């Protein structure tokens, strides 16, 4: 049997059950057919076989991002980047430039601002945004994706005024009784939905997202949701038309009215696992609390930075148990966005309740983020076989804010070492566009626990490079019931591979951040090449 593609002279990180490292791997069509020594693999060479000499570089299973928002990432690309601005003033100038090319009355959108990184040390206000335009509605979304600021025109169009009551699970910020334009949690989600993108913009954004993710070596994405059933339709259309190249495991939830979305899924008769190797329905998902960096995460004890605040809840325990309990009973995998320790505890209790009413083996219920997970919750999570989906890249971008807002709780925030010690399989997600989608960045953050200024944040939770790689590959496949299909380099599995520009296992930790993706192979085809490869 001749191979279609051989990779030789490399560091083949198989991520098999004993984490074998081999020299070479053979691919035929879209499957891996052999892993072994150069001699063994070269014996599979045929007349039309392409051979890539790795010269010591690493080959890994294609990265699986276990929690990312493809639509949000892609549509952000169409707006103004506030993440790279240094101040509100700079953000305003960028928005003014965008206004020059935006037809009158159409939305101007920005994303990624972080008041903690801006010179003014505050959120923008509607009066700031009114300087850009009072004819265009404007929305600027904070980096967490849970908070935004809008101008006066946006408030007017949405019918929001000083006497408007706060929505359940959200807040309109007011100063001296006047709306500032700052919208928190469900108030933001409602406005974002009101300012929705067109179908054409969404499809273009998904295509941009897919291309960027291929550059980062990502071959599978657990898409963590958008707004309503239209988002699922957009994903399906983009996958079937190959505008999205990656394999997609779609979490069935919505950033707006997540219990309502789950109920629609139940009424439709579908459930987790419907689909094929390219597009599959994942778990039913709801929101429990807010964001880690807002901060709006629901914590047991008040914030270190504000003894009067402990975050926002979207659902009561009874509502959570009811929504996800029904989904579990109907055969769904279930999950929830849970950041603060109180929210994580609530999800654990929801899983416990569901299993007590309807026992099920190998349910693989998840907790998205599982931000603050102290020892007492780790024990419960282990007992119930729950899979956490942490985001170590948050430590790099938001770590110093965590120290300010949560104090010593950073020592069990995204506790990867503890998950490993307790034998809890965890799959890493980027939560992009909240942070970069780059898996190498996520691996570095998991291994070093360093903030962007070089400060160590909860260093007791560092893990090894090998553990981080497994969390980005095999564990991601396990979290979607697909470990027999992908996630490791073994004969019979799909030929989803990534070639790096160096050896990731022998590279000094201080140089890990310099590692880049050179090739992304998806379904046995090279979908991204950083440079022209020397094929012999």
From TrEMBL:
CDD domains: YtcJ_like. Gene3D superfamilies: 3.10.310.70, Metal-dependent hydrolases, Urease, subunit C, domain 1. It comes from the Bacteria. Residues 50-526 form the Amidohydrolase domain. It holds the Pfam family Amidohydro_3. Its EC number is 3.5.-.-. One of its GO terms (molecular function) is hydrolase activity. Keywords: Hydrolase. PANTHER family: IMIDAZOLONEPROPIONASE, PROTEIN LONG AFTER FAR-RED 3. This is Amidohydrolase. It comes from Rossellomorea oryzaecorticis. The lineage of its organism: Bacteria, Bacillati, Bacillota, Bacilli, Bacillales.
């Amino acid at each position: 049997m001749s191979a279609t593609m051989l990779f030789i002279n490399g560091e083949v990180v198989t991520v098999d059950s004993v984490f074998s490292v081999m020299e070479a791997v053979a691919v035929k069509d879209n499957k891996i057919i052999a892993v072994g020594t150069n001699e063994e693999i070269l014996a599979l060479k045929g007349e039309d076989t392409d051979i890539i000499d790795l010269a010591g570089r690493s080959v890994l299973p294609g990265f699986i991002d276990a929690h990312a928002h493809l639509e949000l990432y892609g549509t952000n690309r169409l707006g103004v980047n506030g993440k790279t601005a240094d101040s509100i003033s700079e953000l305003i100038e960028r928005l003014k430039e965008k206004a020059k090319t935006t037809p009158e009355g159409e939305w101007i959108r920005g994303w990624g601002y972080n008041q903690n990184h801006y010179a003014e040390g505050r959120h923008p206000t509607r009066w700031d945004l009114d300087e850009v335009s009072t004819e265009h509605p404007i929305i600027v979304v904070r980096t967490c994706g849970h908070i935004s600021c809008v101008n006066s025109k946006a408030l007017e169009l949405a019918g929001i005024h000083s006497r408007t009551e706060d929505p359940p699970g959200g807040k309109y910020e007011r100063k001296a009784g006047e709306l500032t334009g700052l919208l928190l949690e469900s108030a933001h989600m409602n406005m974002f939905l009101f300012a929705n993108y067109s179908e054409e913009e969404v499809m273009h954004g998904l295509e941009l997202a897919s291309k960027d993710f291929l550059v980062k070596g990502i071959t599978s994405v657990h898409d963590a949701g958008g707004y309503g059933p239209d988002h699922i339709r957009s994903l399906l259309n983009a996958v079937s038309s190959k505008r999205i190249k990656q394999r997609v495991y779609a979490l069935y939830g919505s950033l707006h009215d997540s219990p309502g979305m789950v109920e629609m899924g139940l009424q439709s008769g579908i459930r987790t696992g419907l689909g094929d190797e390219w597009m599959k329905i994942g778990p039913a998902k709801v929101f429990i609390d807010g964001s880690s960096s807002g901060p709006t995460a629901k914590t047991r004890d008040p914030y270190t930075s504000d003894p009067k605040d402990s975050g926002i809840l979207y659902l009561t325990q009874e509502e959570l148990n009811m929504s996800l309990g029904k989904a579990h009973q109907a055969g769904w995998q279930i999950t929830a966005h849970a950041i603060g320790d109180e929210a994580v505890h609530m999800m654990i209790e929801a899983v416990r309740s569901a299993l007590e009413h309807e026992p099920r083996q190998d349910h693989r219920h998840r907790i998205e983020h599982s931000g603050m997970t102290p020892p007492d919750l780790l024990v419960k999570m282990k007992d119930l076989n729950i899979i956490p989906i942490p985001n170590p890249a948050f430590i790099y971008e938001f770590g110093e804010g965590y120290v300010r807002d949560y104090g010593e709780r950073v020592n069990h925030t995204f506790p990867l070492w503890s998950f490993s010690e307790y034998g809890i399989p965890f799959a890493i997600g980027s939560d992009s566009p909240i942070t970069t989608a780059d898996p190498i960045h996520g691996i570095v953050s998991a291994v070093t626990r360093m903030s962007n200024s070089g400060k160590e944040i909860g260093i007791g939770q560092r893990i090894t490079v090998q553990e981080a790689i497994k969390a980005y590959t095999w564990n991601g496949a396990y979290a979607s019931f697909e470990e027999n299909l992908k996630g490791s380099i073994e004969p019979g599995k799909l030929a989803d591979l990534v070639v790096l520009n160096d050896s990731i296992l022998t590279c000094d930790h201080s140089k890990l951040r310099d590692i880049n993706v050179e090739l992304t192979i998806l379904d046995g085809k090279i979908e991204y090449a950083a440079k022209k490869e020397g094929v012999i």
